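Researcher: Dear colleague, please comment on this protein.
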Amino acid sequence: MTESVFIAICGRPEHISDYIFASVNEILYQRKVHDQKFFALNKINNQSYHLAQLKNTNEYLQKITTQTSQWIFEQQLDSFIVKLFSVRTNQVLEQWCFKIMNHNKKLNQYSDKFQQKYKK
């Protein structure tokens, strides 16, 4: 069974994309997707995170978070999903659903509809 984690985040687009960047790195570290020796502890917005020191991983994540920031700024993005798949079975092992609220939108508790939409 897939474990789903729902996270509501609110703030400026650049802070939200920084948080997503750091969170994905932390997921990669905690789940040992890459060997932990390839991570270093760094601060983003005064919080410490394990960030990958792998060129391809960082370039990929920077590309995604730059685009994410633009979509948030343009109010075209209200959620961001990260899924971890099994290499052997291609089955989703875990997923994180980030509910995004723009800085100038009132933060409301995310609805059951949002949770049900991404439970699969």
Summary: The longest strand covers residues 92-102. The CA atoms of residues 47 and 71 lie 24 Å apart. Confidence is low (pLDDT under 50) at residues 106-112.
